[in-house]
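User: Here's a structure from my thesis project, written as structure tokens. My advisor, Dr. K., wants to see whether a designed sequence matches the one we expressed. Can you design one independently, without my sequence as a hint?
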């Protein structure tokens, strides 16, 4: 009589190859260019695809307001909205806006060395923006990172990337002056 086979799951994991597909930034960009993600917003994080929810109207409204405020103190060529940041071999993140050292040429992803400030508007993504994205931007040596948290009515300001995180962390409430890196100007987010 046949007996049921007993499989030790630890042994099975050693034998079976990983079923997760991992991608490089180059492979991901090739898929983007071929239209693979035309109907969705996707980021590449550590070689894995992460689908992002579409932004709601509150997010879009706050994003536009911040772009307008920054455009009053930063030349338009140095300010990009909804841009991809190439953080290395296996990570490409989209940010809500970036202030650059100088305008970039051509239609391409931005490199961390070109960035003065990255801004994320966090209406529903605060934990991701203050966690995974903060650490990814710090590892990439992006000098200053803002998380504009509409639910709490404040901006988390991260600066001085060191050892994979930011050494300086400040909180600026909406309605208070916020220093714009790379300028002598301030803006007030509300």
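Assistant: Designed independently from the structure alone:
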């Amino acid at each position: 009589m046949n007996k049921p086979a007993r499989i030790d799951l630890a042994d099975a994991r050693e034998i079976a190859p990983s079923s997760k597909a991992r991608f490089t930034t180059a492979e991901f960009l090739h898929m983007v260019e071929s239209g693979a993600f035309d109907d969705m917003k996707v980021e590449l994080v550590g070689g894995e695809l992460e689908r992002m929810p579409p932004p709601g109207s509150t997010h879009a409204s706050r994003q536009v307001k911040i772009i307008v405020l920054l455009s009053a103190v930063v030349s338009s060529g140095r300010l990009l909205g909804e841009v991809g940041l190439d953080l290395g071999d296996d990570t490409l993140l989209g940010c809500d806006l970036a202030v650059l050292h100088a305008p970039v040429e051509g239609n391409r992803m931005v490199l961390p060395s070109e960035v003065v400030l990255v801004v994320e508007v966090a209406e529903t993504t605060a934990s991701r923006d203050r966690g995974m994205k903060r650490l990814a931007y710090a590892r990439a040596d992006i000098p200053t990172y803002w998380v504009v948290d509409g639910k709490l009515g404040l901006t988390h300001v991260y600066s001085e990337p060191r050892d994979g995180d930011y050494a300086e962390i400040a909180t600026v409430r909406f309605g208070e002056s916020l220093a714009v890196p790379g300028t002598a100007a301030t803006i007030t987010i509300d």
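When you compare it with your expressed construct, this may help: The radius of gyration is 20 Å.
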